[in-house]
Each structure stands twice: as structure tokens, then as C-alpha cells.
Design brief:
Elements lengths: L3 H23 L2 H9 L6 H9 L4 H14 L5 H9 L4 H13 L6 H9 L4 H9 L2 E4 L3 E4 L4 E13 L10 H17 L4 H6 L2 H9 L8 E16 H63 L4 H29 L1 H7 L1
Antiparallel strand pairs: 1-3, 2-3, 3-4
Length: 336
């Protein structure tokens, strides 16, 4: 059994160790020493206050050391405010240092606004120094002669720091360049003119000022490739001719159907007239019988009428025979 005094001393030592561990966790002493050695004026209370505000002190002190070494005038409270707003303090400070080295005018408030807007401010500064090349997808356009051209362009852009907040992105640049390609090719009389002078597209697109309202400044537009596609004009003419043929065929079918209907109607009319004639001829014997009974027609008159009818049929037969013999003189010559 240990004496009570030794147990008390051991308890005090354990409490001191626990207190030191808790103190070093709450107050990063090593970070404070690094900050003081780098010339950053920060107190132990400030580091403890950052812990209370749920701020990792290293997220503020390390960027503050970089600003001090770079000679930037940045307040620690501003860094804390930007961190609490959800921004990346380290990226903002790196962008300020890069802009200072490249002699690009960039303020701390502007850098924070760009970062909070969701844009990578450090990448924007790098793009201002080293322009970026944006390659557009293949854009299909049709010249006035009906030939399709498929062009692909490379757009060299540089970030415009002053328009990063509220400016349009790369998608707008690609869409506007595609629109310029379609306009240029579509206004060309022939596709050969575009193939001979592909820089015509570049000049036309650059003259339109497509970088207005965007976060970039277009430096150059180079046509990477131009290929000849389909003959759309000929295909449209073929389609139109096929459509005209079908329309004409439908109209002809309609006229044929109307002609057939009229012919059927005429046949029906003739048959109806024949039926009426037959019906009328059937009434003739009845009328003659009635006339004989009533004494309106004599027997001699009836025989005379029959002789006249026989004579008429004979004359018609003779006339038909003579007509047929005149109509075929070749056969008569062969017989002779």
C-alpha cells in the first residue's frame, strides 16, 4: 500500500498532464510559435477564441504566414469572416500571391467574392497568365449551294478577372463560336469558298465580339478541321421531287376514279334508257291490237306498215354491207 501523500502527488501529476494535453489541444502552442517566428502578431487568446468559434486555427494562421511573407496587407478578421462564409482561405491567399507576382490587379475583397461565387480564383489567375485553349465540338453548317461542312475550332481565351463574378462560362463561348461558324458558312455562296479560306470563319467570329458578357477574353479562334459532309441541297430536291411525284400520282388516281364513276353512271343511264325502250316496244303490240279491235287500224294498213319495216331493215343491211367493204380496201385488193 502506497502512503496517502504519494497517492495525492500522483493524482496531482495526472491532473497536470490532463490539463496540459487539454491546453495544448485548445491552444496550439506549436502553431503560435511558428506564427510569432514568421512575424505574425497573434496572441494565445486569439487562438483560443478561434477554437470557441469552431475555426481550425491552422486554416487561418498558415495563410496569414504566407501573406506576411508576401507583403500583403490582409487582416486576420477578414480571413476568419471568409472562412466562416464557406470560402477557401488558402486558395484566396494563393491567388493574391500569384496575382502580385504576375502584376495583375486583384484586391482581397474581389478575390473573396470570386471564391464565394463558386469559381476557382487561383485557376483564373493562372489562366490570365497562361491562356487556355477551348476546343469546340464538331459544328455542322450548310452553305448556299446545299453542301454541308463540318468544322471544329480551337478558341484561345484568357480569364477576365473583373468579369469573373456574373460573367458567363465556357459553355457560352462554345455556343457563340458554334453560332458564328453556322452564320459564316450559311452566308457563303459555295462551300469551296470556305474550304479555300477557312480563316474567313475566324475573322467573322472575332468581329462579332463573342466574349461580351463572359468571364473570358477571346484572343484567337483557329479552325482546326473542316470536312465536307452531305449534299443536303440535292437530298432536299430529291425529297421534293418524290413528294411531287406522289402528289401527281394521287391526283391522277383521283381523276381515274372520277372517270370510272362517270363511265359507270353513263352505263347505268344507257341501261335505264334501254329498259325504257324495251318497255315502250312491249307496248306497241298492245296498242296495235287495241287499234285493230277499235277499228282505228285496218288489216291492209297493218300489212303496209310491215312491208315498210321490212324494206327499211333491208336498206339498213345493204348500207352496212357497203360501209364494211369500203372500210377495208386492203383486203379487197388482196382478194382481187
Amino acid at each position: 500500500m502506497f502512503p496517502s501523500s504519494i497517492l495525492a502527488a500522483m493524482g496531482i501529476i495526472v491532473l497536470v498532464i490532463i490539463f496540459l494535453i487539454a491546453f495544448l489541444y485548445v491552444v496550439p502552442l506549436g502553431l503560435w510559435i511558428s506564427a510569432r517566428a514568421s512575424g505574425v502578431k497573434v496572441g494565445i487568446g486569439s487562438l483560443f477564441g478561434m477554437r470557441l468559434r469552431r475555426i481550425n486555427p491552422s486554416k487561418i494562421i498558415l495563410p496569414m504566414i504566407k501573406t506576411t511573407k508576401a507583403g500583403l496587407d490582409v487582416n486576420m478578421n477578414e480571413l476568419e469572416a471568409h472562412f466562416l462564409a464557406g470560402g477557401s482561405v488558402d486558395r484566396v491567399i494563393d491567388a493574391l500571391i500569384a496575382a502580385q507576382g504576375a502584376r495583375i490587379p486583384l484586391e482581397f475583397e474581389q478575390s473573396c467574392a470570386i471564391d464565394l461565387a463558386g469559381r476557382n480564383v487561383l485557376e483564373a489567375v493562372r489562366m490570365s497568365v497562361n491562356p487556355k485553349v477551348i476546343e469546340t465540338p464538331v459544328v455542322a453548317a450548310i452553305a448556299k449551294d446545299g453542301i454541308e461542312l463540318r468544322a471544329k475550332a480551337r478558341v484561345t481565351v484568357r480569364a477576365n478577372i473583373s468579369r469573373l463574378v456574373g460573367g458567363a462560362g465556357e459553355e457560352t463561348i462554345i455556343a457563340r463560336v458554334g453560332e458564328g461558324i453556322v452564320t459564316t458558312v450559311g452566308s457563303s455562296p459555295t462551300h469551296k469558298e470556305v474550304l479555300e479560306n477557312p480563316d474567313l470563319i475566324s475573322r467573322t467570329v472575332l468581329a462579332k465580339g463573342l466574349d461580351a458578357g463572359t468571364a473570358f477574353e477571346i484572343l484567337s479562334i483557329d479552325i482546326a478541321d473542316v470536312d465536307v459532309g452531305r449534299n443536303v441541297g440535292a437530298q432536299l430536291q430529291m425529297d421534293q421531287a418524290e413528294a411531287d411525284r406522289r402528289i401527281a400520282q394521287a391526283k391522277a388516281e383521283e381523276r381515274r376514279a372520277m372517270a370510272v364513276a362517270q363511265e359507270q353512271e353513263m352505263i347505268a343511264t344507257v341501261q335505264e334508257m334501254r329498259a325504257k325502250v324495251v318497255e315502250a316496244e312491249a307496248e306497241v303490240p298492245r296498242a296495235m291490237a287495241a287499234a285493230l279491235r277499235e277499228g282505228k287500224l285496218g288489216v291492209m294498213d297493218y300489212y303496209q306498215m310491215q312491208n315498210i319495216l321490212s324494206d327499211t331493215r333491208m336498206r339498213d343491211s345493204i348500207a352496212q354491207t357497203g360501209t364494211s367493204s369500203k372500210a377495208d380496201p386492203t383486203e379487197d385488193g388482196k382478194k382481187k
